[in-house]
Design brief:
There is one protein chain. By secondary structure, the protein is mostly helical. It folds into 2 domains: 8-129, no CATH class; 135-178. The protein contains 7 helices and 2 strands. The chain has helices at residues 19-23, 28-56, 61-74, 78-84, 91-117, 130-133, 140-167, and strands at 8-10, 13-15. The longest helix is centred in the first third of the chain and has 29 residues, at 28-56. The radius of gyration is 23 Å and the shape is elongated. The chain starts with 7 loop residues before the first strand and ends in an 11-residue tail after the last helix.
């Protein structure tokens, strides 16, 4: 916790716990704003990356519209869009957008690693040592492996579904594009 709040420490015991005060402390505004913007940027660049690949391969009007919306979501190249009312069509620009999808995910993860790993975010600053935070509860490894399995199944299912969707051609009329 960056700004511990919502509890008191009395004789090495945590008392008067207020979960809302703990969750909505003085650091909440800045951290929520930061992560909401990061999530929109990653989502926008990831979607833009996909549609940039489709445009490089001579995509449809639907692909162009989806690409435009995703770039607007990511707030990318907004000045160019306002001035020219269109996105640059150079392949170099589209390939840079393709790279921005995975790079935006890497940037968010790297930011988390730099910020959290050294600080050990599960430790409450000034109240708890690292050695005190390690759990000895039974079944932790079972829950860990179960969680990994669930995410693995979700990942495989996502890949299978996306591959099946990629094989089915989408007509222009199906999306109202003209």
């Amino acid at each position: 916790m960056n700004a511990p709040a919502g509890f008191r420490l009395v004789d090495d015991r945590i008392v008067d716990v207020d979960p809302f005060a703990a969750m909505f402390n003085v650091a909440t505004g800045a951290q929520m704003t930061h992560m909401i913007f990061a999530a929109y940027l990653v989502t926008g660049f990831s979607v833009a990356s996909y549609y940039a690949v489709r445009l490089v391969k001579r995509g449809s009007e639907y692909d162009r519209r989806a690409f435009t919306l995703s770039l607007l979501l990511a707030l990318s190249c907004l000045v160019s869009f306002i001035r020219k009312r269109t996105w640059p069509e150079a392949k170099a620009f589209l390939w840079s957008i393709v790279l921005l999808g995975p790079l935006s995910v890497i940037a968010v993860e790297a930011g988390w690693v730099v910020t959290e790993v050294r600080r050990q975010s599960w430790i409450v600053q000034g109240y708890m040592r690292t050695s005190e935070a390690v759990t000895q509860a039974p079944g932790v490894w079972n829950l860990f492996y179960l969680t990994l399995t669930i995410y693995f199944v979700i990942g495989v299912a996502t890949i299978v579904i996306l591959r099946q969707l990629a094989r089915v051609p989408i007509t222009e009329n199906a999306h109202g594009a003209s």
